[in-house]
Amino acid sequence: MTKHNFYADIDSPTPSLEWKGLTEENRLLKINELLSKHARFGNELLVISAKEDGQIIVRLLSNISSNKRGTLLLDFEGILKKNLDDGLTVWGEALGDKNSLRNLRGIEVKTL
After folding, report:
1. Is residue 97 a contact partner of residue 110, using CB atoms and an 8 Å limit?
2. For the whole model, what pTM was predicted?
3. Which of 3, 23, 32, 46 has its CA 20 to 30 A from that of 39?
4. Domain count, the chain
């Protein structure tokens, strides 16, 4: 019998010491400078957080279909990795539950 691995066995890149040494203000400044060079993203995304652990939280500025949203976020992450730090990951901002039926029944979904 052969043993099959059904999971990635390579560690994900982590942010560099240089990235970790920056203040959040300076991390946001670097990202926004890069964002200004790529108009495609500046019209669609607002960076709201740049954490020391490499998580970049973005807010979408307009309603984008899920297939275009995924591509947009992955492309933005690729540019960040290529130009700033390989250990960065992009996350969409958590939103509250917009389902009106759940809201009518009194079910509440809390976000962080």
Report:
1. no
2. 0.76
3. 23
4. 1
76 occurs within a structural domain: yes
2 in a structural domain: no
Per-residue pLDDT of the chain (112 residues; tens, 9 = 90+): 567 767 767 788 999 999 999 999 999 999 999 988 988 887 889 999 999 999 999 999 888 888 888 999 999 999 999 999 999 999 988 876 666 665 566 656 666 6
Q: Residue 78 sits in which domain range?
A: 17-92
In a domain, 112, yes or no: no
Q: Is residue 71 part of a domain?
A: yes
- For the four alpha carbons of 90, 85, 15 and 12, in that order, the dihedral sign comes to positive
For the chain, give the secondary structure using H, E and C.
CCCCCCCCCCCCCCCCHHHHHCCHHHHHHHHHHHHHCCHHHHCCEEEEEECCCCEEEEEECCCCCHHHHHHHHHHHHHHHHHHCCCCCEEEECCCCCCCHHHHHCCCCCCCC
Q: Which amino acid is at 49?
A: S
